[in-house]
Amino acid sequence: MAGLKLTDVAKSYGDVSVLKDINLDIDAGELIVFVGPSGCGKSTLLRMIAGLERITGGELQIDGQVVNDVPPAQRGIAMVFQSYALYPHMTVYDNMAFALKLAKMSKQEIDDAVRKAADILQLTPYLDRLPKALSGGQRQRVAIGRCIVRDPKVFLFDEPLSNLDAALRVATRLEIAQLKESMPDRTMIYVTHDQVEAMTLASRIVVLANKGISQVGTPLELYEKPRNEFVAQFIGSPAMNLFPGEITATGERTTIRLADDHGDIVSAYPSTAADMGKTVNVGVRPEDMHVSEDGTGYTGTVDVQENLGEVTLLFFVPDAPGKDPVIAKLPGIHRGLKGQTLHMTASPEKVHVFMDGTSLLYR
Amino acid sequence: MHPALQGLVTIIIGVGGCVGYFVLSNYLLDRFLLPARAFSAEQTAARRKLGTIFLFAIPSVLIAIGFLMTDALFSVQGFLWLVLAGALILGLWRLNDFVFGSGATTAGRNISRANMIRPWLFLLPAMVALGLYLTYPVFETFRLSFTQRIPGGYEFVGVDNYTQMMSEPKFWEAMRNNMLWLFVVPAMSTAMGLIVAQLTDRISWGNIAKMLIFMPMAISFVGASVIWKLMYDARPAEQDQIGVLNAIWVSFGGEPQQWLTLPIWNSFFLMVVLIWIQTGFAMVILSAALRGIPEETVEAAIVDGAGPFTIFFKIKVPQIMPTIVVVWTTITLTVLKVFDIVFAMTNGQWGTQVLANYMYDKLFRANDWGVGSAAAMVIMLLVTPILVMNVRNARREMK
Known about the structure:
heterodimer; A: 363 residues; alpha+beta; Rossmann fold; CATH 2.40.50.140; 2 domains; six-stranded mixed β-sheet; six-stranded antiparallel β-sheet; 8 helices; elongated; B: 399 residues; mainly alpha; MetI-like fold; two-stranded antiparallel ribbon; 75% helix
């Protein structure tokens, strides 16, 4: 039963600030995923929790105890590294037993713990092998086994799947999910840059960007109600379309006139009279777009059509160079839309409005 | 001519010769022997004919030289000469086939054939030089170790040289000292090199420290011996001590000692010199190996609760074990051959004799090439297994 509490945690190397104002409450038994673009500091944050990087500001509590200056081994954490970091000169058994030997446990206890973990991870036949004689997936499991035997309060995973091939990645992802289910009271923190891993594994996702936390929430919260444009575009694939526009009607619902005479669109997001005439960005996910019957919404000519069978992707390439194309994802098969001029709209509940990058919902 | 000028000319001729050989031989290979273009069947046949003329021309010149050099071809030397020429003909005949072939040839075939020959072109000078200066002397020494010098020549004496050597106490002293060196020097050098490599890795002036420790490597063994001889120097008690060791000793109230004449201890004083030199070597290699250890394994050990000593001995050292073995054996080889230090500092007196110095004594002082060669063979016998092990290890390292 161990929760984590991060209060104003910051990290800087000399004058270079990498992370600042990180405030986060993690409850016991959660599987938290840190996700963000490369270089956003998500691994650094994890390593600070592990105790491998010094925390240069703020306070980190594990289980209600400030651990800023507690060495890693006494924090009750265990970590799976990106490259597995198995000890190449030790057998699988010794790899898993190393921490327990250091903890001066009895031979019998060590043996029981290792064999139990090996059993769970189906590593029993490989206990006498050296890591170099194992496949990537098996090495991964040894790395996880090394954590399990210590029975830590918090598991830390640093991009554990990035060295595996695509098929193995899906399988190992499922294994980690099952592992979590078998240990409901253990907290896990998982770092990845892969949003699919984040969406499928997380009880809550922490999106990191610009040295701080962009948004914290369940996967569907992030998908349905992104706090800002960054989260909106980071979660979901293809990324959310953003259209510049101007608010023309306010109230319970907001009407926005899209720039470049692309028509009007209505959002279910409420706005105040003061917002009248403000410039905003309208965000619509490709899968939420559909052809409007009454000629309202975004108007454009289909430049490229991709037929994938289950869905049809339509690309509207903007005239201005350097701008991302508008993408619509229509369910099923649609023939011969290329070259046609279409009016695309979305139901008001699915239309996000961002003012200065922040969603109207979170003002 | 001024000696410096002579040296310069020698260097120019030597380096120029090397460059000339490589440029010219490759030029011949790519332009005349196997140019990168296609030949019709007739052209190939013509080239083959030309090749065959060369093929017989070169050995016949050799045979002619043989005639001129020896009195007659029908002596032992003449026979050897003929065998050599015969082997050359056979080799060139195969090469002729390989190079020209029969029928039309393509540019691609010529290029790939040329690239198969090229490595041998580069290896040839090294192989000839090694054969002449290394392989041949080994066999000649082996032969000489069974001979004895008599006025006007030599005679075959079987294993007499070996039995004579075995009965000499000086030989056994040398053997014992060599074993002592063998245990102490590689162990101390490697251990100190490892410790220094680890300690200098994290400190700001680590690189300066490394440079200082590496510097003795640049000094010749004799130079180092001269330096250390001064360190061990002794002056009469009433004078100031210029030797560091005696200066310290006297300041603590001792009588000045002739350190290099104290039995048993003096061997260790000599070993210190070699340790001083070899630590730098061990440090450089081991430092690189330590840097090559994946940082994440160290971090994993930290998370597992390992302290600095456990990390060093249980995580780092095992991972660089192959490198440690290579360093250890390399230093062992140096130790087995150690000569200069003993020669320059004690010349094997006062119980410090080692095998190489014993060999030198026999060969150049006593003019007894038989026993000297026998001693050389003993050294080689001791070195060979370690050499084989070292080469194997180095190969495994490279994989």
